[in-house]
Design goal:
Number of strands: 10
Largest sheet: 2 strands, antiparallel
Structural class: alpha+beta
Helix content: 40-55%
Strand content: 5-15%
Shape: flat
Order of helices and strands: HHHHEEHHHEEHHHHEEHHHEEHHEE
Length: 343
């Protein structure tokens, strides 16, 4: 066993070196030498222990993270117990990508910059085009923008997306002293979304963005009590909890109007905030059994409460709706635009 392991280690090291030479830009002579070393190490092992894919050889290297790499060196036939060498023994399996050295047009240079640098790099583009940025920037008008907030050049799909109202305000301010940003202002103005009225926003109990104070006001109005309910929200866990005094717990709206004899309105609201559906159980022979009638009644009341929080017959969470309506943003990807509420 130990002898097999000792002879497999040089094969493992040789295949690593062979792959590394193909990826790190080594010249062809170095790649060929690494391939020869791999062939030598593999030949020494197979000549003594047979193909790497033999069960005994696999077992020797079992648990090593490089075992799949070693097994891939062979095309193994389980029936004949014979193996043939993989392509890596005779030729390159990884082609080293050479960087582009020149470009004919500004748009081509931009694509090269995005592909190789991951961003708009004017210096790199200038080197590809063999001309200063001032000469090719006019050809990229409307395609790239200088972001006054970051002072970085960005593509149109990156700049004309996200919080575009905030970007418009920044561009407006920058254009006062630098006329270059007038182009930004016009482009951003053309994509500004319309603010959504509160009536078009559904406020769902349990949404993590809901302000606890708005939820508290909603509960007070729903139960027709001036105070007595405290609302807590642990944002990291997404959990809500309610604490109520005796006046709120004893209110008719809590026990009858918005609750049942098995589930109070406050309990139904807390379940709704935590995205839970109420289920009522009875103990039968000391085992919990669902009570269908009581469960259905509780769920119907919870649906009424959820409907009220939006635009039903009861009070609504108006403050949250107004807050959401005032913070609309626009998200754009190439060929697709949408208006969403940031809530």
């Amino acid at each position: 066993m130990r002898s097999r392991i000792r002879h497999l280690i040089p094969v493992r090291d040789a295949v690593r070196a062979c792959l590394r030479s193909q990826m790190d830009g080594s010249d062809e002579a170095q790649v060929v030498e690494a391939r020869l070393q791999l062939n030598h190490a593999y030949g020494m092992f197979v000549g003594r222990f047979g193909p790497i894919n033999l069960r005994a050889n696999q077992h020797a290297f079992d648990g090593d993270r490089d075992l799949p790499l070693l097994l891939s060196l062979e095309h193994y036939n389980d029936e004949t117990k014979r193996a043939t060498k993989a392509t890596i023994f005779t030729e390159r399996t990884i082609q080293h990508r050479k960087p582009v050295e020149s470009a004919n047009e500004p748009k081509e240079a931009l694509l090269v910059s995005l592909n190789e640098q991951g961003r708009v790099d004017l210096d790199h583009m200038a080197g590809l085009l063999n001309k200063p940025a001032e000469e090719f920037l006019p050809d990229l008008k409307g395609i790239i923008f200088l972001n006054p907030q970051t002072n970085q050049w960005e593509t149109d799909d990156q700049y004309l997306s996200g919080n575009v109202p905030e970007k418009l305000a920044a561009a407006d301010a920058a254009a006062v002293t630098d006329p270059r940003y007038h182009e930004n202002v016009e482009a951003l103005k053309s994509i500004q979304p319309e603010d959504l009225p509160a009536t078009q926003i559904d406020v769902r109990l349990g949404a993590s963005w809901l302000p606890p104070d708005d939820v508290k006001q909603f509960i007070h109005k729903l139960l027709n009590v001036p105070s007595g309910v405290e609302v807590g929200h642990v944002h990291a866990l997404g959990s809500w909890h309610l604490n109520a005094n005796w006046e709120a717990k004893g209110a008719t709206a809590n026990t009858t109007d918005w609750g049942t004899d098995r589930y109070t309105g406050l309990e139904l609201i807390e379940d709704a905030l935590n995205l839970k559906t109420p289920t009522v159980y009875d103990l039968v022979d000391k085992k919990p059994v669902i009570n269908p009638q009581a469960t259905e009644a509780a769920r119907e009341k919870q649906e009424r409460i959820r409907g009220s929080s939006k635009n039903g017959s009861g009070p609504t969470i108006q403050g949250a709706s107004a807050c959401a309506a005032s913070t609309t943003t626009r998200s754009i990807t190439p060929g697709f635009a949408r208006s969403t509420a940031t809530i």
